[in-house]
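As a warm-up, study this chain.
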Amino acid sequence: MSRKIIIDTDPGQDDAVAILLALASPELELLGLTAVAGNVPLALTAKNARIICELAGRDDVPVFAGCAAPMHRPLVTAEHVHGKTGLDGPALWEPAMPLQEAHAVDFLIDTLRREPAGSVTLCPIGPLTNLGTAFERAPDIIPRVAEIVLMGGAYFEVGNITPAAEFNIYVDPEAAEIVFKSGISITQMPLDVTHKALVTRPRLEAFAALGTRTGAFTAEMLDFFERFDIEKYGSEGGPLHDPTTIAYLLDPGLFSGRHVNVEIETGSDLTRGMTVADWWGVTSRAPNVTFIGDLDAAGFFALLTERLARLP
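Now compare it with the structure written out below.
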């Protein structure tokens, strides 16, 4: 039986690959994509989500535009990483499929109320604004969520937008705090694991070698996206963050981590947006997150390449 999921996203090249992986996997029933402002402003993330659906030949997947700014802060974006469109690299087009009229937050609330309790998994791979807003507005949906598998945060790898904070959590730490304190079962893909999912040149070439529209688009996107991180980290390839969430749903055996307490720093100017993981169990705070620390990178890229090969 397929697992029902909603991907909350701010595409972003790595978001795009996560969406493609979900669309290529019959084990997952993608109920909808909810766009949020993050890597680029909302108008572009909502557009990019539809471009990715059209690329995969899946214009049947509803796309909803959500929150255009964080709950209590001005928006911070990441064009310096993703380019001015958010999907710089390949040639883009104006999507023909429509944006849904409903707001993403309303779609989240209505869907979680309508579907059987415990049947919908949320996969946020951008700032957590849409989820935080939905949980604040409709707390009755919180116990109805099956689980949350998210990309965000860091602990041992520290930050990528400030010295202490990862981008998704930093953009809306108040929303992240609502989500992390929700009591829902959370699996977190922090930079600690995504920085081990490196798009090396052979892995990039494997996408191009698929000989498909999707393979070429993916290779062109990641070729652009990787440049920034290779230069910043001096690594042999850039990390592929967001698809780890979908890969975890498909094959959790590729990943390992610990069930620990994770708190979100919202107050400090110095460390705002930091995810403070009690990895060594030195506090009495109750564990609330499965914090992933390692993955089988070869297995992850084999799964990704095999699935992308199924798309047009």
